[in-house]
Write a structure and sequence with these properties.
The chain has 543 residues and is an alpha/beta fold. The chain contains 18 helices and 18 strands. Strands 10, 11, 12, 13, 14, 15, 16, 17 and 18 form a nine-stranded mixed beta sheet that branches. The chain has a seven-stranded parallel beta sheet with strand order 3-4-2-5-6-1-9. Helix 1 runs parallel beside helix 2 and helix 10 crosses helix 11. The N and C termini lie far apart (66 Å).
């Protein structure tokens, strides 16, 4: 089946997802890499293949590995919609017996790699979400490889299957030139042409920038060739929040663009500024308050409750959010339409992740375009120009600089020479636009295709059924509710009878046939709650 041949059915699968399922129909072992643009929907075919393999008895369990704990919960929720029950943020490779598997962070895997290696079964399907993280922290990659070395299948997912340090990603195949070889590739350009992602228009800004460099005052725009050190200082001047005709002017232009999007019918359209650090974020927030009359939301990666603030912004009608290191995987805010790139780092991986925040679509809405304002820096321009190509990266020997990577001197000059640098003035304005993917979005969203016969539901066949959650509630959430209820009832009974929690828990566990509450099935937790309610209502408790 080709993408052009795919037709709509009621399953909601997209053409490229059908192609992925077609490819995995003959996959029996080894690693399988899906490289697809952020927002394209990598989760769905992964869970479809897991569901089908479970039903067919081809696998015993599923492990989904993620960069963060919130992502494990997102995976568990999505899996439950297909009847696959995953225990999120798990501490153990073996979930309760009424679950099909777990979702776990790379950090937990790395901390227990040897223990997990002894417990992982060959017939476990391992899904690695955002697999490029397996090299970002070498311990993550090593721990993952050690823990799941015996598993027969690894399904690797990434919107950016390369790494800025050029080290290999575990399980990824590379050709003779060191290029990552994906089994399924689906680029930003493909996604926009198919109506899966929004088109993005980049708006570089440039002008006259002036800064103090030691005893010298240097004045230049982004079209002037400078040394590595002075290029970095020019960029820092461009993102400075203290020069009235620099970044503040761009923020005003961006807000006008956002207001236009709202007036055009997208009433809750939102904007995101990607800041360099926490101090920079607060300066930008102050400027936005002056421009808009209302303080924006600020989300920092190291603050408690950051993901809750992101979730609240996603559901709100707030206009602006300012973030530091909170715009990568798992951040899904489809109402974002306007962005300002003012971060310190300019790596291709980070740039693609930022762009990925603006490509999400909203069901029922046309493919409204998004806009991203950015300094007219040559590195960022190159990233913007290349982002609609297939996502691939050539590995190079460690330490050898490449054209897509930041100069190694950048962080040193930014951090160690502040005493000899100060931004003096800026007079910048948006330049012409860089429209990706050949311009306008498709007028009509392409139809969702059919699913291959091998992946359609086979009702009535002799397969192991996949149980769903109770009453529409995912099993992991129902289990959490029951555990909290049990804990509360144990406390109530302990206060009434002046008995320890340990004594009461031991009695309940013995009655329902478990050694530890974390091993309890939902049915056993329900029986536990019934026993405790009975005891509190007057039935005798065994001692």
């Amino acid at each position: 089946m080709t993408l052009a041949d795919a037709k709509r059915t009621g399953n909601g699968l997209r053409a490229w997802q059908v192609a992925a399922l077609d490819g995995m129909a003959s996959w029996e072992s080894g690693a399988y890499l899906i490289s697809a643009a952020p927002g394209a929907g990598k989760t769905r075919p992964s869970l479809e293949v897991a569901r089908q393999m479970l039903k067919a008895g081809a696998i015993d369990s599923v492990v989904v590995a993620c960069p963060t704990a919130p992502l494990t919960r997102q995976w568990s929720e999505a899996a439950a919609e297909l009847g696959v029950q995953l225990q999120p943020d798990s501490d153990d490779v073996h979930p309760p017996s009424d679950f099909h598997g777990i979702a776990v962070t790379y950090a937990k895997i790395a901390s227990s790699g040897k223990r997990w290696a002894a417990e992982v079964r060959k017939r476990t399907l391992v899904i690695a979400d955002e697999a490029h993280h397996l090299g970002e922290d070498l311990a993550w990659g090593d721990g993952f490889a050690a823990a799941f070395g015996s598993a027969k299948r690894w399904l690797l997912l990434s919107g950016t299957p390369f790494r800025s340090d050029t080290s290999a990603i575990p399980g990824v195949r590379y050709d003779a030139g060191g290029v990552a070889v994906a089994d399924i590739s689906y680029s930003y350009a493909d996604a926009v042409r198919d109506g899966v992602c929004r088109p993005v228009t980049f708006i570089p800004y440039d002008g006259v920038l002036q800064w103090q460099s030691g005893d010298d005052v240097i004045e230049a725009g982004f079209d002037t060739v400078l040394s590595t050190r002075e290029s970095a200082r020019r960029y820092r001047t461009a993102i400075s929040a203290e020069l009235s005709d620099g970044l503040p002017r761009i923020l005003r232009a961006a807000h006008e663009k956002l207001l236009a999007a709202r007036e055009a019918g997208h009433k809750d359209a939102g904007g995101l500024v990607f800041a360099a650090d926490s101090g920079h974020a607060r300066q930008i927030a102050k400027l936005l308050r002056e421009v808009t009359g209302k303080a924006p939301v600020i989300v920092l990666h190291n603050e408690a409750g950051a993901h809750k603030k992101l979730a609240a912004f996603t559901r709100s009608r707030e206009a602006w959010i300012v973030a530091v290191n909170m715009v990568s995987e798992g951040v899904d805010i489809p109402r974002l339409r306007v962005g300002v790139y003012a971060g310190a780092a300019k790596t291709p991986l980070l740039f693609r992740q930022v762009v990925g925040r603006f490509v999400r679509t909203i069901p029922g809405r046309p493919l409204d375009p998004s806009w991203l304002y950015l300094p007219g820096d040559s590195t960022l321009r190159r990233h913007a120009a290349e982002i609609d190509t297939e996502l691939r990266h050539v590995l190079r020997p460690s330490g050898e600089p490449g054209e897509l990577d930041e100069p190694p001197e950048r962080t040193e000059t930014e951090k160690s020479e502040d005493a000899t640098f100060s931004a003096l003035s800026a007079d910048v304005a948006p330049e012409g636009q860089m429209s990706l993917f050949g311009g306008a979005a498709p007028a009509v969203t392409p139809a969702a295709p059919a699913v291959p016969a091998a992946w359609q539901s086979n009702e009535g066949e002799d397969e192991t059924p996949i149980p769903s959650g109770v009453g529409g509630i995912p099993s992991h959430r129902r289990r959490k509710i029951l555990r909290e209820k049990r804990h509360s009832l144990v406390a109530d009974l302990g206060r009434r009878d002046r008995r320890t929690h340990g004594d009461i828990n031991a009695w309940v566990n013995g009655q329902v046939g478990i050694a530890r509450v974390q091993d309890a099935t939902i049915e056993q937790l329900e029986r536990s709650v019934d026993l405790l309610l009975g005891a509190l209502s007057g039935r005798p408790v065994g001692r």
